[in-house]
Amino acid sequence: MDVVSPELNSLLPDEIMDTEAIEDVPHSQTDVATVKEEPSDDTSVPMETDTPVAAESLSLSMATSTATTKTTDSVTGTTVSTSGLQKLTAPFTISPANHQIILNKVATEAAKSGTPPQVIKQEGQKLLVTTIGKSGQPIVLQLPHTGGKPGVSQASGDVKPQTPQFKVVTIDGRSELKPVVGSASNQVTTLQAQQLKAVQIAKKTPVSSAAPIKFIITKTVNSKGFLFLQPFPCHVLSGRVLTQNSPVMPQRTITLSEPHSMSIQSIPGKKIAISPLKSPSKVTVVSVASPTSNTSQKSVALPVNVALGQQILAVQQSTSASPVKVATSQTTTQNIKPVQSVAVGGVSGSQFKTIIPLATQPNVQQIQVPGSRFHYVRLVTATTASSTGQPSGPSTTKPMVVSTGAVRMSVPIVPAQTIKQVAPKPLTSAAQVVTTTQTQQRLIMPATPLPQIQPNFTNLPPGTVLAPAPGAGNVGYAVVPAQYVTQLQQSPFVTLASSSSFPAPTGIQTQARLPLNGLTTAETTSRPRKPCNCTKSQCLKLYCDCFANGEFCNNCNCNNCFNNLEHETERQKAIKTCLDRNPEAFKPKIGKGKEGESDRRHSKGCNCKRSGCLKNYCECYEAKIMCSSICKCIGCKNFEESPERKTLMHLADAAEVRVQQQTAAKTKLSSQISDLLMRTAPVISSGGGRLPYTFVTKEVLEATCECLLEQAKKAEHTHQPQAEAERMILEEFGHCLMRIISSAGKAKADCASINC
DNA sequence: GAGTTTGAAACT
DNA sequence: CAGTTTCAAACTC
């Protein structure tokens, strides 16, 4: 699996327009995203795995949401409609191999495939989703200009679907494209701080076990169109996500209530739970359908709270290699399976729906990002069970492999519940998630088969992401550290899907470092955690700081480490054990005070006996907080009036100041050097010749000195004051330098002309 | 870098 | 819940 790059968010338009009409786009379209054709052996219609009969649609509706994206997949083709797309600048690539959608894939990749690169552009809002035609013809979905201004919100409550302007285009120029079914109701409401964008792509349930792929992406954008990746706050989820799968039930509904803008993604037939993370974090959820599942998926209800400005990405993948189709909940000329729907903010409608079919391969590669905690994401295994779903339509049916770019979810996840329906529940203030500019991204990737362990989401480490375990109808969870996704940003070489035939999108490298919301990745990423040195705990006990902080071990010095995705099963068990022992084991020990840091205190208090609580053995002291009444320490010197503590603090402050000064000095020096190099660089590059100072030969130097001496004599003869004399000399020196530089330039020009 | 100290976590 | 053991980080030399 490929990880979505941070720019994926940027790709999402602020506004998405629904389109019902399909327009053919010339093959020469330059703005089209590259689509890779995926040969589909499966002539049968790819359908959702979880629901045999009814297609599932996921819809997210938020009072504050401003953008809506909808994707529909009909038997004959795949249709994606989006609304509010504003910023689509990154290439969007679909990889046939894994049925994955790759976002931000480098253009070179597309070029390699021999297909024209697909680019989603914000301006034209042309491309949203591409599918690969069965015939090998890529399909390009194109969105016409909405005319709406980005960031412009419509009056809340406006559920009036916009006119579908979404275009589906095949590379070969044929209009075989699938009718855009189901008009996405586009509801735009005024965003207080951010705008929500959700894109949902629903796919019809495959008749055969062939891989139905569903892909849901929701995205939240602030008023500036920036996407924020933020850790999940450990808040209670008030909303519920309902993903129950029933052959009888045509639709699945996930309801999310959020007072603020939010985005939610749900995957039909799969369960996705997003657990609360650190407040500013965002979560990306990717669910993968199990290849072997042939039965209806278990219904799961997930209460979900979406934080303001947070973004959620849910990706559902079917394991089968069959072509993926996207179908909207609305009727189309073609058979469409029921789709799961997710309603947010109590607003009904298909708004903010994004379903993206993904490759079914559950390959997972460990990606770790320092500093963050687990994201709790509950992934629902898509069942590939043979469903009553309509057989694949005409030859136009196109298998689709999609890997999406990074998705952000800022939704605390409540323990999943088996609920068929979730009533829209307005988010309470308590459920609010604070949105920050943090750019961390979360990715949920397929996990190895997991035992039926359903950790208490409320107690999971912040930032944990649960990935579905492949299996028939089984819902597995893979707890993925929030850093997982972030690491992708930092480590472009890491791919989520090892099996993916696609090379890791190189675009992630550069894109990952692109400033998001004015902050660079480095700025927004917490500092790397110290590597652990565990030898006996397998990094699966709280002794291990990595594990205790909900992180995978990365670049650690540990031995026999099980704190990675390769040992997800063991890891899950360990987490469960810890939670059984202490439900708050993964919660931060240092609780934030109500008012500032002064109120911060250790949740349990320390038990120091010999350190006087003035060494880092003491967790209170280590956290730079004073011991409190709940501490059981002996001989504590870590209190306000403690002279020892003050002395240590002063020393520490002084040391810190020195370090900062040194750092600042180094930074300044480095900057100066860089600036100098930058100034000289043009000379080098332009002329390719010698630098000006290389012309300062001995003769030139002597001549310069003579000029300066002459100037000094002149000042002396004219009885100029010393200051004036110095000024004259310096001025002359400046002239000399200018002449040297000028001569150097001329010499280079002459040389260049001669060479020519 | 090796050894010691320390206190949280785990265990009984 | 208390006592003991285990463990890895912090610390010292």
TrEMBL record:
PANTHER family according to UniProt: PROTEIN LIN-54 HOMOLOG, TESMIN/TSO1-RELATED
Entry protein name: CRC domain-containing protein
Phylogenetic lineage: Eukaryota, Metazoa, Chordata, Craniata, Vertebrata
Entry keyword annotation includes Nucleus: yes
Location in the cell: Nucleus
One GO cellular component term noted in the UniProt record for this chain: nucleus
Entry similarity comment: Belongs to the lin-54 family.
Native source organism of the sequence: Echeneis naucrates
UniProt domain CRC: residue ranges: 528-641
